[in-house]
Design a protein that fits this description.
The chain has 448 residues and is mainly β.
Amino acid sequence: MSKAFFLLLAALPLLAQAVSFTNQIKPVLAKQCSGCHQPQSMQSGLSVTTFEALKKGGTKGPGFVAGKPDESLLVGYLTGAKSPRMPFGGKPLPEEDIELFRAWIREGAKDDSAGAGAASAHVPKVPSQPIAYKSAPLVTAFAFSPDGKMLAVSGYHEILLNTVEGKLIARLPGKSMRIHGLAFTPDGKTLAAVGGDPARSGEAQIWDVETRKQRASIVASADTFFGGALSPDGKLLVAGGGADKSIRLIDVEAGKEVRKIDHHEDWVFQGVFGVDGKRLVTVGRDRAAKLTDVSTGRFVENVNLLKDSLMAIVRHPKRDWVAIGGAERIPYLYRLDRPRAMRIADDSTLIRKFDRQDGPITALALSPDGGKLAVGAEAGDVRIFNAETGDLIARCSGHQGGIFALQFSPDGANLVTGGFDGHLRFYDMSGKMVRDFVAAPVELSRGN
Ligand code: HEC
């Protein structure tokens, strides 16, 4: 029996009944496409994490034309009729998967997600075997341990603990396909993570660092969580919601969600606590940096003047100042406290603007003394600025693709970058690269 015939047989039972978007199309998109086509990284303007986003499509138009597979961009890019063939730079999908897309569109491209109910019925699982990596997975998040000796790095369905020299210490497998935020408590004993499966589930994980045991897994949403910053005392974790636009506060010790805050009008990507932990500032696609009172969840005011969607925020280590950035490509430094009563189009909280970057800003970091601001974007070099004067200090180059995470080492000697190409790169303050490694244990595939 030929292989093609066998595959055809295997596909037949699926094709006999209507193709399900939720059960058959979405998992393929989540696995093969969402790395580059999701709200945080929308290549060609396309996100594939929800039915609506797929329908809306990217810069070339809607993702599909119901009933007409051959006129649908999705099919065109999957078959290679349109180039570059998708998944970009990867192996083409098996023919039977492409046929599923064709069949689903032919049958009218129905959305059977049935709202959040169906989506929250998805119970994410911890993989039963360690992931075998054929190439470096995206670095969507990483964090230094407070003593500066260890790095926790996002993997696929796991967190990787490495020494700062790049030696793998431990693998912490979890339910979330992707980890979007990582932070150690100030005593270094607990590691908190947020992430999820795009358009399916959001999760926060709490780990005991010494025993490497997961203390809690909080699955609390039908879409990925972003953010993942801790309050200064390490007791509260903030997660930003995807499709449900919420902010979640998680009690680290108790391992449970204690508050859901709903005053953003769109996806929330990042949040930081103020110096005393009593206030929280969150940013998202609705362009606002929203100041919230932590104990009541009450919205105080927008810190910024709304310009364009925001993806990154970082707080000054000693002051109630925040740097924000996003689609407008310009980093801004704001203070949380307005010097006078708010007026219309009031930007009196603005301290400083920095140079425009080569792409939308995706990550920001401030040095431990607050003197330097590092800016990462979807394209171009990572730049280090003098936070006091706005002058450019250094450019860190060598990345293949966008940056998703940045942090200064606790001693302030290095800036570390992570992103699309899966490498962690250490730079000194002159912008010279001093170390470069992949945290995940990548196996070289046979034959190349
Ligand atoms: C490694 C990153 C990457 C992955 C993975 C990826 N894409 Fe893309 N995709 C791109 C880039 C880059 C472009 C823009 C290509 C160009 O026009 O030069 C693009 C463009 C597209 C477009 C055209 C959108 C428009 O309107 O402009 C479609 C459709 C698309 N991709 C579908 C997919 C599908 C389906 C998958 C999964 C099977 C996938 N992509 C996986 C990077 C990726």
